[in-house]
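Submission checklist for the structure archive. All mandatory fields must be present; incomplete records are returned to the submitter.

[x] Identifier: Methyltransferase domain-containing protein
[x] Organism: Cupriavidus yeoncheonensis
[x] Residue count: 262
[x] Sequence attached
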Amino acid sequence: MTTAATSTRSVLAQRFKQRLKPFMPAWVLKFHRNRAIRREGSLYEGKSLGEVFTHVYQTGGWGLAADESGFYSGSSSHDPKIVDPYVKAVTAYLGAMPERPAVVDLGCGDFNVGKRIRPVCGPYIGCDVVDAAVQSNRTRFADLNVDFRCVDITTDPLPPGDIVILRQVLDHLDNARIVTVLSKLAPYKVLILTEYQPLNTNFTPNLDKAIGSHLRLFGPVPSGLVLTAPPFNLKVLSARILCEVPDSGGVIRTIAYELSGR
Ligand SMILES: C[S@@+](CC[C@H](N)C(=O)[O-])C[C@H]1O[C@@H](n2cnc3c(N)ncnc32)[C@H](O)[C@@H]1O
């Protein structure tokens, strides 16, 4: 079977699953998630991150785009119940700065969220490892004056700026790659991080996982990223929760970390 045919089959299967999802009992959802996690683990072994996340987009791993773009970064990048509070909180935070900050958005995805933050920012650089998504953003958001770049944040140098945004990116990477990204954040003043965490605050943070579309929240033992905890131990001057939205049995937490420059 050709790659195109395989991709079309995956997209149709994904569309079918999306329709059924609201009617599936929790144990069926968990069974399917576990199977998908196992499959992704072997499928992506030895692949570059560009190949991995291109495949995630092509097969609708985060859902399917309703428009012609073909890129859909997930319901948590589109659901107004999740995106609106985020935009309100981050806009208020950035808008209160004495000058419009230079923003670097790492893993900007389909830019459905970034486009709403853009107005309160100075220069804006949007980076993603999926070249076709970057090119699509350049066309679709040509009027927003954003410098879209194809960058692998784990291996490439990061562009300069005041504020770095990482919204639902790191949880798709394994711990070793997260360490390399964090080692490059010192030049920024503030990191605005958004990730899922379990609702139960007694969870073990930072359990390792394979790269892919899935989240630590849905691993065999539910977990989530806490960058200030081991093994990452990110050094920060302050941490301020900007917003929290419950979703999918967890909470999507956005934190502004003032970085210590070390
Ligand atoms: C779930 S999407 C989130 C997109 C966007 N931040 C948002 O909140 O709507 C994760 C994005 O991170 C990108 N990504 C993952 N690993 C990356 C890497 N190493 N370098 C750059 N982008 C990466 C993926 O291609 C994808 O577009």
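[x] Structure attached
Curator remark: The longest strand covers residues 236-247. The helical segments are 3-20, 26-43, 49-58, 80-95, 114-117, 131-140, 175-182.
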